[in-house]
Amino acid sequence: MQASLFKKIVYNFYKQYCRSFPWRETVDPYVILVSELMLQQTQTYRVLPKYLDWLMLFPNVKALANASLAEVLQAWSGLGYNRRAKYLWESAKIIVEKYGGEVPRTYEELRQLPGIGEYTANALLAFAYNQPTIVLETNIRAAILHHFFENHQEKVSDSQIKEVLTKILDKKSPRNWYYALMDYGNWLKFEGYDYFHQQKAHTKQKPFKGSERFVRGYLLRESLKYKELKLKEIQLSGYTQEQIRKIAKDLVAEGLLQERKPGILSVV
User: Fold this and answer.
1) CATH number, domain with residue 235
2) Are residues 87 and 159 in the same domain?
3) What is the spatial distance between Cα 168 and Cα 170, in angstroms, rounded to a whole number?
4) Can 36 be counted among the known catalytic residues?
5) Using a CB cutoff of 8 Å and minimum separation of 24, what contacts does 56-60 make?
6) Which pLDDT belongs to residue 208?
7) In 3D, which of 5, 112, 125, 83 has the Cα closest to residue 268?
8) Cβ(83)–Cβ(256) under 8 Å?
9) In this structure, how many other beta carbons lie within 10 angstroms of the beta carbon of residue 41?
């Protein structure tokens, strides 16, 4: 498909059916960083109320940097993947201390921040600073696969998709282009287009209930709720005490919890 025709299809769709989110109404890099980390592997409907509450508590990077980790984890509770909250908190401290409260504008500097990978760095540069980076996520992947690899027999790699994105990128307005592309790809998925069989990058996520993620979230929530959590009193279906203690040890090693006394957990 020609790039010009594809852009016309995407932009025409976007004019009629663009989605509205508060993080699209701002170019504040801190606010966009918050939304990007929250949206990782988390549905938009779950993120929206947490995002609004978060900005009430931590309206800017300095407010977040001055908060305690317990306050940050409490505000994040319910979103899962709690390391993201810790990474965001640690990044805020670095941004304040090293960059005077200004979120970096270069890919290299952003990648030095905790938990900021290739996608998040490029997304932040595109959405906050309107820089023509290559942003690839699930909805964009669906749109590219549908129009440029529809009859492709072999699995398509992300590097192949990025080659297409480079050729079709709207360099004058990457911010709006990616918003439009995301919305169009989301619509394709809603309409039933199944692209998973085409991509090499796809891995099926295990159910949350009964998973290690479930246990991690449980230990964090209970530690926040009771201040101190005795491991020997925890009983979770499908998990032995040994397994629970191993997961707790991982949380301590990651700096999310601490074990001030043997077998007793608390938030750092």
Assistant:
1) 1.10.10
2) no
3) 6
4) yes
5) 60/30, 60/101
6) 58
7) 83
8) yes
9) 12
Entry field: residues in the chain = 268
d(CA 250, CA 12): 49
Cβ neighbours around 205 below 10 Å, total: 9
If asked whether residues 148 and 188 sit together in one domain, one would say yes
Question: Which of these is catalytic: 25, 36, 90, 259?
Answer: 36
pLDDT one-digit tens code per residue, 119-159? 999 999 999 999 999 999 999 999 999 999 877 667 899 99
In this structure, the answer to whether residues 74 and 158 fall within a common structural domain is no
List b or e across 101-137, with b for residues whose CB sees 16 or more CB atoms inside 10 angstroms: eebbeeeebbeebebbeeebbbbbbbbbbebbbbbbb
Q: Which one, of 173, 187, 138, lies nearest residue 27 by Cα?
A: 173
Does the pLDDT value for residue 166 go beyond 90?
A: yes
d(CA 179, CA 143): 12
Give φ, ψ of 199 to 5 degrees. -100, 140
Q: How many domains does the chain have?
A: 3
Cβ partners under 8 Å of residue 79, min gap 6: 38, 42, 46, 47, 50, 85
pLDDT tens profile 201-217: 555 555 556 678 888 88
Q: How far apart are CA 50 and CA 54, in angstroms?
A: 6
Beta bridge partners of 179: none
Judging by beta carbons within 10 Å of its beta carbon (0-12, 13-18, 19+), is residue 31 exposed, middle or buried? buried
What do you get for the CA distance between the two ends of the chain, in Å? 53
Distance CA(172)–CA(116), nearest Å, equals 25
| Domain residue limits at 236 | 212-267
Q: Pinpoint the alpha helices (H) of 114-173.
A: 118-129, 138-148, 158-168
What distance in Å separates the CA atoms of residue 13 and residue 180, rounded to the nearest whole number? Answer: 8
